[in-house]
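#structure-requests
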Amino acid sequence: MVKPFMPQLVYFEPKALDYPLGQELYKKFQAKDIEIRYTTSHNQVRNLPGENDFQRYRIAKSTLVVGLRKTLKFDTSKPSAEYAIPFATGCMGHCHYCYLQTTMGSKPYIRTYVNVEEILESAHQYMEERAPEITRFEASCTSDIVGIDHLTHTLKRAIEYFGNTSLGRLRFVTKFNNVDHLLDAKHNGRTRFRFSMNADYVIKYFEPGTSRLHERIEAAGKVARAGYPLGFIIAPIYLFEGWQEGYKLLFERLSSELEDEAKDGVTFELIQHRFTKPAKRVIQKNYPMTKLELDEEKRRYKWGKYGIGKYIYPKEEETEMKETLFEYIHTYFPKGKIEYFT
């Protein structure tokens, strides 16, 4: 069992202490006798402890930087939402395949932003611009926000904020099971709570530092009983020996945890394992002993829209993967909705 995240080292931007959440976090970490340092900017944390890259990377993953989100222009998001809403950056998990390793580069530490009301005010402006359309905001493009929310309660604040809007919807995904403080949030059905799920094999070998499968399934049951709209991201779908049985067991266990009412309208997003050449280099540096299969010869190359191609499974394997998982979903979640497969 993974304990809820507690940083070993905390940095504050001085201006973060002008905000109530900054003050609250400062007192919390001071009371726990955690080392506190200062930095001019959450983007400029240098001289992290550690004698080599390997050590520094691991220390960075247990370092929290408390700062302000200065850019309040939101990125347009992935297929699941119109905009990414930036409450945090970085993650304490150690998923070997994670794309954040390449996008965050030399800054793998975790950042949380205390100017929450300003971020929500920006969200309000985006909703106004798109009215009367519904606007969806994705809160986990660059972080696993649930992983730190037991410390900040930023996500809880956002859930209740969107619960009071008519045109806003919030979405996020997590690999962590510390959801208890979110169960009584007044969400009014306007937040879709998604869990990243995978076969036991993938979680065991490639997702250290995250909650185990049975813990995520149990947490999903709690969230469903709290009345949240529910979703699951099955990613990365990874072909290992016995993968068909491994994924079947996942859907069986998930189905037995959830009541029929919760299964009605549950969403699924399916993403096959992929990697880029730069990602492969970073993965092998950060996790030199990984069992993750990264052989370009066993994959096909698919051009990306920004000119960087990805290595994905050959067409035949992709088709089998898609057909198998679609069949499991139709069997165990006949009223579920598959949003996409990629």
